[in-house]
Amino acid sequence: MLSERPDSRIAARPQEDAPSAPLRVGIVLLHQFTLTAFAGFLDVLRLASDYGGNSRQILIRWRVMSVDGAPRRSSAGTLQVELTDLGDVGDFDYIAVCGGNSYTNTTPSKKLSAWLVQAYKHKVILLGLCTGTFAIAQAGIVGNRAVCVHWNVIEEFQRQFPTIKCNVDNLFVDAGALVTCAGSTAAIDLALYLLTRHYGKEKAQQALRHMMLHSIRPARLPQAHFYIDLDQVSDLRVHKAVHFIEQRIDDFPSVSSIAAHVGVSPRQLERIFKAALNTTPAALHRVMRLQYGKWLVTNTRDSITEIALSCGFSDSSHFAREFKLLFGETPRTFRGG
C-alpha cells in the first residue's frame, strides 16, 4: 500500500511540541553506501532541525552508526569515520539503513539483522535508503508489504527475494512500519515527506529552500527508468546483455562489445535476442530511449525538442516518428491527452 500511515508506531506531532520531544533518527551506513542518499537524507534533517542553517539538533536528533562503529567506505571511495556502534533501539523513532553497491552480498551481518528485528518489535519505523532495503529484507521483516527499489537493482532484488513485491514506479513507498525509497535523490523526497508528516509543510519548505530545490516530489512520481521486463526470459545471457545496455543508454555499445561482455559471438547474441525477445540489441536500445522519452513527456515540462535531444535523437521529427510507431501517437498528442 502506498503512503499508508504508520501502524500506530509514531504519531505526527505538532510543531509547537517538537522542541521538548525531538524526532529521533538513527542512520546505519552499510559498506559502499551511496553518498547522495546518505547526505541528502541527513541534510534535510539538519536544515529543518534549526533555523538559519545553524545545524543544531533541536527539532531533530540524529546519530550515524555502523556495525561495531567501524568506518564505512562509500561507493565513491570516500571514508566515513567517527561512527558509533548500533545503539539502543529505544533511542529512535526512525532507523534508516543506507546501502549502496554491496547489495549483491547475500551473507548479511547477523548482528545488524538481529538489531533490525529488535527495532521492528519495539515499533521503530524502518527506512530503506537506496539498497538498504536489501538489508531489511534479509532480516526477514518485510512480510507481505511492498517495497520500493531502484530500477537498476530490481532484477537482483527479485532474485534474492522472489516472494517480496517490489516497485519501481514510485520514488518511495510508505507501508507503515516500513518506508523504502529508490535511493539517490529520492532519499531527499523521503526525508521531506517525514518532515511534512511531523512538523508540517512549512518546515519541509524551509529545508527545500536551503537546498535550492524547487518543489517536493510526491511518492507516486514514477522513477525515470527504462526497465525491460525479463520475468519470462530464462536465458541469463539475455539478462546480462540487457543490463549492460541499460547502463549505457546514452552511448549505445557495439554489438561486438555486448557480445564480449556476455561471452558469446555477435551472431550468437543476435540469435538469442531474437529467440528470447523477438528483437535485436539495437532495437531494444531504441525502445529504452523512447521509454525514457515517454517519462520525460509525462513528468516534465521540457519541450519536445529538448526531450528528443536528451534521448539521443537527432531532432524532434525523428523522435516523434519513432514515438508514434511505438506508442501509437505523437509526443505532443500524448502529452495533451
Automatic annotation (TrEMBL):
One Pfam family it belongs to: HTH_18
PROSITE patterns given in the database record: HTH_ARAC_FAMILY_1 (PS00041), HTH_ARAC_FAMILY_2 (PS01124)
Alphabetical keyword list: DNA-binding, Transcription, Transcription regulation
Residue span(s) of domain HTH araC/xylS-type: 239-337
Family matches, as InterPro entries: Class_I_gatase-like (IPR029062), DJ-1/PfpI (IPR002818), Homeodomain-like_sf (IPR009057), HTH_AraC (IPR018060), HTH_AraC-typ_CS (IPR018062), INH-QAR (IPR052158), Tscrpt_reg_AraC-type_HTH (IPR020449)
Gene Ontology MF: a single term: sequence-specific DNA binding
PANTHER family listed in its UniProt record: ARAC-FAMILY TRANSCRIPTIONAL REGULATOR, HTH-TYPE TRANSCRIPTIONAL REGULATOR RV1931C
Protein name: Transcriptional regulator GlxA family, contains an amidase domain and an AraC-type DNA-binding HTH domain
